[in-house]
């Protein structure tokens, strides 16, 4: 293979059999894709199914259970084979459930990764197209802009002010200047190959046209295997905490089971049976499925958010969203529609209106094409508006470009707030055309004080009408300076005029802003635009309220960070800021203990996006760099989407909490039942081992998962954000778990006692009582799942049928349980006996008791909250009460 950096451009193109302007033909690209494979770095392979099944056996409790079953089989001389078989069957079913749960969680997350996969701009069949980056092949002509992730290794054919950040590859942290340079010596080290760009590096400035030389594992980054393993930790704080907690709980469970076994042994019960009971109880009561349930609920929630246009890239963000106290949002495109229409053109000197429009059109990269009578603009909306304006005034951009061809350019960046192009004049010499923020541009122009005043006044008048204003200027040069930079090109200009464009606010944002205030979240606008434009729009949207302040980046520079922290709550608009200011704003809010969501799209926004607790990148207009740094991508670039994501985030957290609530309170019930039965010296255990294991199957996974998809509760956005540092078990949660668990346990024991001493026939006491306890424990848990659906609201209020998954889980559980209670072959297997109508009545009454009790408790606490607090009226002096 050729050493690409040592070849001339022409050699590279001919070797790769491609054309700089037309690119590859679509058919050829497809054929090459077949030959070279997708442009993707190989992923870590997934484990095979048998291995994963074996992985399930890693759980020591399952092993102990199998050993215990084997022991009891052996001790009974093979008589207990049915029990042993059932235990084996249940263990197998459990393993299959866990694996399929893992699978569905993983698939959901993978689908999300695909959604946020990068795209590339490629020239094929003579047209610029956007294709998924993994479709690139050697020979493709790609276009790169600031903020792009370089999708493959490529030789540079054409470049303007190109700089890349290669730290991911070479460790060099400073940006490297690159260009379409002459061939380099073959032995040039990677870091010095200035005529090449490498996959996984980032364009920090400028733009380029390149030809792809290597893709996928053939790229430089593909060769560095170590990089592939650089996978980010992607579990949420709650997941981590719950994994810890479930370890502790497992230990506690084990201790209780050990005590149970010890006490049982002292009481002279059958040792082996006691052992099997203790182990089965441990298997049933240990919340081993808890971390898996949390992952699934998270994955399902994240999939639901993706359908609502918020793609969560880093799972922890889901939880953090629920704590968000401040949302710092860009203006253009996020709060507004990014749909610009020029409504005002003003020239400083008479007769220069056309010149102003010409500069606007020529000094931009947007293009206008006509599809029939419909104009279709491509490129940045600000620039598209300028090109469209020119067309409206009868100035065709292509024709203008033919007369004044572009020879050089300094691309726009949000730091300089200017863009410059250099054009060859037909009469000789060059014309430098500059457009940009009027206040910045005016400083680069020769203006008399009177003119400067007029420009400023007109700019402010336009800005007050909420217009986005661009200034245009030019200068003529006889020769091109050797160095083309801001210094040589963007000084000593002649000011021409101002162009004002309208960018209407997004209609849905006003409501979203209202929701923010109701939810205790402060919306803040951060924009590169003029202060007056920003304030006018912020006011219209309700972000800027009476008493609020707006501040510019320039003023911010004079404000020490300490003072900013003190005063931060006063500012709701930051105007003319550069990306570094965003960082300071995030940090100041964080210093006030707030969890900050921040939007960003540009290449320089990455640090702020990383610093923010929830970095939100724009899916449509954002750069790859911003997307890479973000926790979440908004596919529609919309502020309202962030607010709905916060709502979803709060809902997901609440649902996870419900699943935990359900699982733990039920486990407490199970433990308590057997523990009390042993300590109180019951003749027999209220449940036998296979029943315990069955119970685990019927009541654990399905209802908990159904709670995980509970619809977001009404009023969740009328509460303040959750305290990120508060314990999950705070606020009475632990207490609720405990008393509800105790309730389930007591009801089960009551069923047993009633069965043994009150209801059953003398000969059959144990089996009947045992069946009643088994039925009560299972059914009461199934009913209890409905209590957990809301912490406060009555079941009737939230609606019995609003969570179909829950109703399905209930019916499946019920059917399974009825089967083992009523079908004779299963009765034999699960040691149950038919129950009399009286026994059934008692079981049903006890099983629905949790609903009755929980509804009553909720009603009482609602009534207490609703009762008006009696205020002490302060007495006026001298008046006695
Ligand atoms: P936001 O940060 O809310 O998206 P913004 O789009 O106005 O706001 P920037 O894109 O950084 O922020 O633009 C800052 C200023 O630079 C604008 O107010 C405008 O005056 C000027 N500007 C924007 N786009 C261009 C461009 N393509 N060429 C020249 N100047 C531009």
Automatic annotation (TrEMBL):
Keywords: ATP-binding, Membrane, Nucleotide-binding, Translocase, Transmembrane, Transmembrane helix. It comes from the Bacteria. InterPro entries: ATPase_P-typ_cation-transptr_C (IPR006068), ATPase_P-typ_cation-transptr_N (IPR004014), ATPase_P-typ_cyto_dom_N (IPR023299), ATPase_P-typ_P_site (IPR018303), ATPase_P-typ_TM_dom_sf (IPR023298), ATPase_P-typ_transduc_dom_A_sf (IPR008250), ATPase_P-type_domA (IPR059000), HAD-like_sf (IPR036412). The chain crosses the membrane at residues 57-75, 81-99, 249-268, 274-303, 659-680, 733-754, 809-830, 842-861. It is found in: Membrane. The keyword Phosphoprotein does not apply. Residues 3-77 form the Cation-transporting P-type ATPase N-terminal domain. PANTHER family: CALCIUM-TRANSPORTING ATPASE (PTHR42861). NCBIfam families: ATPase_P-type (TIGR01494). This is Cation-translocating P-type ATPase.
């Amino acid at each position: 293979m050729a050493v690409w950096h040592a070849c001339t451009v022409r050699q590279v193109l001919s070797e790769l059999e491609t054309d700089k302007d037309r690119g590859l033909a679509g058919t050829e690209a497809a054929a090459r894709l077949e030959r070279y494979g997708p442009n993707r770095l190989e992923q870590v392979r997934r484990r095979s199914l048998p291995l994963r099944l074996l992985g399930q056996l890693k759980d020591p409790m399952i092993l102990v259970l199998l050993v215990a079953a084997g022991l009891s089989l052996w001790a009974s001389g093979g008589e207990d084979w049915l029990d042993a078989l059932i235990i084996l069957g249940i263990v197998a079913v459990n393993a299959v459930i866990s694996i399929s749960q893992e699978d569905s969680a993983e698939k959901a997350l993978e689908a999300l990764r695909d959604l946020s996969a990068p795209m590339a701009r490629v020239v094929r069949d003579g047209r610029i197209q956007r294709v998924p980056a993994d479709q690139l092949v050697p020979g493709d002509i790609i276009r790169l802009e600031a903020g792009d992730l370089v999708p493959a290794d490529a030789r540079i054919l054409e470049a303007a002010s190109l700089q890349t950040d290669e730290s991911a590859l070479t460790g060099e942290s400073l940006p490297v200047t690159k260009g379409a340079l002459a061939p380099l010596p073959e032995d040039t080290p990677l870091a010095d190959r200035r005529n090449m760009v490498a996959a996984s590096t980032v364009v920090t400035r400028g733009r380029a046209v390149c030809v792809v030389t290597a893709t996928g594992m053939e790229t430089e980054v593909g060769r560095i295997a170590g990089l592939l393993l650089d996978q980010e930790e992607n579990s949420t704080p709650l997941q981590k905490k719950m994994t810890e907690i479930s370890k502790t709980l497992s230990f506690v469970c084990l201790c209780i089971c050990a005590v149970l076994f010890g006490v049982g042994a002292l009481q002279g019960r059958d040792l082996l049976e006691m052992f099997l009971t203790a182990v089965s109880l441990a298997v049933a009561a240990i919340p081993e499925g808890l971390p898996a349930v949390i992952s699934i609920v998270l994955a399902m929630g994240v999939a639901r958010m993706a359908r609502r246009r918020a793609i969560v890239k880093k799972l922890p963000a889901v939880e953090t969203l629920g704590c968000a106290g401040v949302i710092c949002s860009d203006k253009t495109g996020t709060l507004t529609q990014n749909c610009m229409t020029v409504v005002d053109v003003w020239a400083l000197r008479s007769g220069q209106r056309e010149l102003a429009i010409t500069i606007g059109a020529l000094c931009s990269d947007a293009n206008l094409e006509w599809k029939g009578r419909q104009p279709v603009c491509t490129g940045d909306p600000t620039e598209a508006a300028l090109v469209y304006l020119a067309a409206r005034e009868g100035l065709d951009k292509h024709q203008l470009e033919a007369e004044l061809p572009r020879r050089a350019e300094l691309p726009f960046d949000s730091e300089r707030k200017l863009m410059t192009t250099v054009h060859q004049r037909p009469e000789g010499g060059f014309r430098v055309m500059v457009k940009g923020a009027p206040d910045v541009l005016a400083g680069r122009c020769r203006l008399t004080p009177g003119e400067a005043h007029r420009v400023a006044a007109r700019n402010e008048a336009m800005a007050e009408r909420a217009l986005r204003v661009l200034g245009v200027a030019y200068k003529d040069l006889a020769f091109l300076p050797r160095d083309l930079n801001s210094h040589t090109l963007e000084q000593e200009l002649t000011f021409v005029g101002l162009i004002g464009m309208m960018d209407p606010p997004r209609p849905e944002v006003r409501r979203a802003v209202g929701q923010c205030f109701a939810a205790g979240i402060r919306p803040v606008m951060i924009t590169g635009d003029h202060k007056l434009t920003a304030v006018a729009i912020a006011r219209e949207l309700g972000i800027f309220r009476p008493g609020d302040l707006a501040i510019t980046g320039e003023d911010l520079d004079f404000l020490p960070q300490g003072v900013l922290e003190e005063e931060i709550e006063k500012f709701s608009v930051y105007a003319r800021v550069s990306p570094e200011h965003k960082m300071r704003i995030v940090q100041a809010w964080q210093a006030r203990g707030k969890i900050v969501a921040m939007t960003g799209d540009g290449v320089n926004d990455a640090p702020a996006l990383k610093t923010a607790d929830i970095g939100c990148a724009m899916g449509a207009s954002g750069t790859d760099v911003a997307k890479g740094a973000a926790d979440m991508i908004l596919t529609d670039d919309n502020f309202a989407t962030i607010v709905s994501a916060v709502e979803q985030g709060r809902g997901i957290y609440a649902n996870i909490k419900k699943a935990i609530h359900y699982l733990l309170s039920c486990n407490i019930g199970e433990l308590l039942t057997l523990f009390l039965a042993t300590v109180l010296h019951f003749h027999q255990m209220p449940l036998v081992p296979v029943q315990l294991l069955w119970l685990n199957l019927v009541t654990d996974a399905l209802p908990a998962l159904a709670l995980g998809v509970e619809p977001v509760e009404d009023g969740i956005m009328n509460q303040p954000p959750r305290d990120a540092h508060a314990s999950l078990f705070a606020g009475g949660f632990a207490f609720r778990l405990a008393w509800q668990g105790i309730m389930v346990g007591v009801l089960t024991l009551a069923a047993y006692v009633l069965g043994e001493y009150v209801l059953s026939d003398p000969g059959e006491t144990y089996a009947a009582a045992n069946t009643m306890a088994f039925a009560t424990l299972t059914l009461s848990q199934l009913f209890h799942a409905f209590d957990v659906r809301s912490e406060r609201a009555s079941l009737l209020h939230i609606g019995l049928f609003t969570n179909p998954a829950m109703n399905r889980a209930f019916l499946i559980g019920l059917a399974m349980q009825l089967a083992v209670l009523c079908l004779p072959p299963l009765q034999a297997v699960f040691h149950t006996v038919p129950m009399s109508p009286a026994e059934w009545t008692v079981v049903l009454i006890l099983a629905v008791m949790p609903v009755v009790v929980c509804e009553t408790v909720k009603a009482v606490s609602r009534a207490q909250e609703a009762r008006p607090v009696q205020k002490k009226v302060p007495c006026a002096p001298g008046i006695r009460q």
